[in-house]
Amino acid sequence: MNTALFGNPNTGKTSLFNQITGSYEYVGNWSGVTVDKKVGKIKDSMQSLIDLPGVYSLNPLSNDERVASIALLQEEAQQILNIVNANQLERSLYLTIELLETNLPQVVVLNMMDLAEKRGISIHLERLGELLGVKSYSAVARKGHGCEEITQLFKNEPLHSSAPFMISYHPIIEAAIARMLTEIGEEGNMKKRWVAVQYLMNNELIQLEMNKKFPGLSRIKEEAEEQLFKAAGHSAEDDMYKTRNAFITQLVEQVTEQQG
Ligand code: GDP
Ligand code: K
Ligand code: MG
């Protein structure tokens, strides 16, 4: 069972990785890109933790982002450890949403809790977990706080399977997703809705891979883009981006409190 560590740059990924793995090795490059692949063995567990480059989204503009998508598409990431910067919750949650849409077993770790506290921000962990449908933990990875509890999660597998997570997009987009799912059919064991969503969001890696197998998808997207432009005056990508951000803004309001 492979768990992959996802998070924004500078959220404490390396610090957490070092806390919960006993040893690690570089196992070459990711296929097609010159990004080192680092895999660690989780302490007191048979499971491996794959360190991924820090990214803000899965949309592959850079090689780093490409790796994050490859890990999901090629099913190297069977479970997800999503580290979130508690001090920059709103920005961090964009990636979290993209990861939740995979519906893979996952947990969210709010790191940098010391910095959030210093700024007088308190975060309702349990409420956040409930709203996202995943277990959430807090940590100060630099000091090792909370890391023991996170390590323990890997004693058993799989991780808590998350409650099905779904953001409802514009009706025109939802109709396109439904058509795409029919087109994809039963083939493969992929996270199909996630694939459809990423395809519509112009994840080029997903588009390239999927167009090879399902040539009908591009026509479905084109038709949806036309319809949406007539109805709303913008692209599917813009619309979905807005929907996600509206979801995040509302979520952050519900789970954070500014003290003093
Ligand atoms: P990465 O870029 O995501 O791998 O993050 P690093 O683990 O390299 O951490 C980035 C910086 O944040 C380093 O200076 C760490 O010592 C620091 N850091 C990591 N975790 C915490 C934390 O929980 N609180 C604070 N205050 N600093 C942290
Ligand atoms: K860094
Ligand atoms: Mg790092």
Automatic annotation (TrEMBL):
Keyword Iron among record annotations: yes
- Keywords noted in UniProt: Cell membrane, GTP-binding, Ion transport, Iron, Iron transport, Membrane, Nucleotide-binding, Transmembrane, Transmembrane helix, Transport
Describe the location of the FeoB-type G domain by residue ranges: 1-160
Q: Where in the cell is it found?
A: Cell membrane
Protein family membership: Belongs to the TRAFAC class TrmE-Era-EngA-EngB-Septin-like GTPase superfamily. FeoB GTPase (TC 9.A.8) family.
Function of the molecule: Probable transporter of a GTP-driven Fe(2+) uptake system.
Would you tell me the protein name for this molecule?
A: Ferrous iron transport protein B
